[in-house]
Structures are given as C-alpha cells and as structure tokens.
Amino acid sequence: SVMRIDTISIFPEYFAPLHLSLIGKAIDHGLLEVSSHDLREFTHDRHRSVDDTPYGGGAGMVMKPEPWGEALDSILEQLPSPRRRPVLVVPTPSGRPFTQHAAAELAGAEHLVFACGRYEGIDHRVLDWADEHFELHELSLGDYVLNGGEVAALAMIEAIVRLVPGVIGNPDSLVEESYSASTRGMLEYPVYTKPSQWRGLEVPGVLLSGDHGAVDAWRALRSREITAARRPDLLDQESPDRP
Ligand SMILES: Nc1cc(-c2ccc3ccn(Cc4ccccc4)c3c2)n[nH]1
Q1: Is 30 part of a structural domain of the chain?
Q2: What averages of pLDDT result for each successive group of 10 residues across the chain (243 residues)?
Q3: Residue nearest to atom 16 of ligand 1 (CA)
Q4: N or C terminus: which one in the chain shows less Cβ crowding within 10 Å?
Q5: What is the whole-number distance in angstroms between the Cα of residue 195 and the centre of ligand 1?
Q6: End-to-end CA separation in angstroms for the chain
Q7: Domain with 196 in it
C-alpha cells in the first residue's frame, strides 16, 4: 500500500532532500508519495502574511490560524472518501517525545500530514480544530530548541519511512538496531570492515576468528559497556526478557 506524506511549511524547499537516496527510491517505486505545500499559498493579502503579534503580549510573533485552516482543509478535500482520519503530526518543543516506538506506530499510517511551524508557534486554536478532523500528534524531536518544525519533520519522516516494508532494501538491517525490540534498548557495538590494518590500527581479533559465538559475546559485551557509559537510563529498563 502506498503511504502518502504531505508537509505544510513556509519553507517547503526544506523537504527537497526527501526526494534523494532511499526515500527517493521508495517514491520512484511508487511505495511513497511526498508532497510539500507552501503555507503562503493559503494567504490572500498583498503581503501574504502568516504571522502576527501575540495576544497577551510577549516577544516574537505567532502564526495566524486562517492560513493553516485553509491549508488543512485543502488536504482533507483531496482525500479519497470514505477515508480514515489522516494523521497530523505537529512538531513542537512542548510535544510528547518522538521515539522509535512512535516511529513504528506512525509507520502504519496510510496518510501522514506534517504541520511545520515557525516563529513562536502556531495559534493554538489550529490544534484544537485539527484535533476534531485528524488523529493529532504533537511531538518533540528532543530536548533542544529548533527555529521551526521542518528539521524535526525531516528527521521524523526518515525514522518513520525506513520502517515501511519495502522502503529499506535489506529488512535484516532493521532488526538489530538501537531502540528496536531485538536490542532491547542497548546501543550498537562498534563495527569494522577491510582493511584489517589501517593507520596502524587493528580490528579486534575475535571478529576475524570465525567463532560466531565469541563474536556475539564480544558484541553483547561492547553494547553493554557502551550503554552503561553513555545511556545508563536505558539499562534501568530491566525487562524480564533481558537477564
Ligand atoms: N524538539 C523541538 C521541536 C522544536 C520546534 C518545533 C516547531 C517549532 C515552531 C517554532 N519553533 C521555534 C520555537 C522555539 C522555542 C519555543 C517556541 C517555538 C519550533 C520549534 N524545537 N525543538
């Protein structure tokens, strides 16, 4: 089934990279349709304004609700009916954390719409209205501040689309990943390839031994060492199926 992704932003050119590499191939193979919409197409004044001063005062500008309403209407009107409610993802610093679990959940959606804000954010009535017409997800990319939602949307789209069957060439490469079920939240072990000697640096001998048991043990040990050092919080999730 074809997954459709629509993005709405005042910088639609941010999404041109999606047409490159893996995602580009998925689009060429008809597995994925990506359309980027310019929010200013839904303004009607001479200055094509999308922002105004905030009620209640404060610094910065807030994105006006009308252009967003018309942009979202236009997406809903283009849907084949009867349709399931499309998913609307709104990247925001105040959102629920975007995790691999959220990516897997969203990878099952038929139609994803990303509303990318700028300035101090979007008039909250847009989210209130959208909650009635979409399955709304306000998501944060992480605990750092960006200038807008586009970079967050690009990252989320990549994390989601690579989980869609057929998009990634080799599905095996998805199995043993950080944050995936099989690694149970452990970080990746170090990887090596030829040449076995490089600038005087060797590859760990066990990896050249052909002893797959020893290789697995070495990798498990390195994962645990690296996770304990960098992400002890992931180890606290002592799950019953991890000794
Ligand atoms: N994880 C994450 C998401 C964002 C994000 C998403 C959308 C928007 C729209 C405007 N801004 C700028 C902004 C900065 C701080 C406070 C309010 C607005 C955005 C930031 N930053 N960090």
Answers
A1: yes
A2: 94 92 81 95 98 98 98 94 87 98 96 98 98 98 98 97 80 69 82 98 98 98 98 78 48
A3: 120
A4: C
A5: 44
A6: 39
A7: 182-234
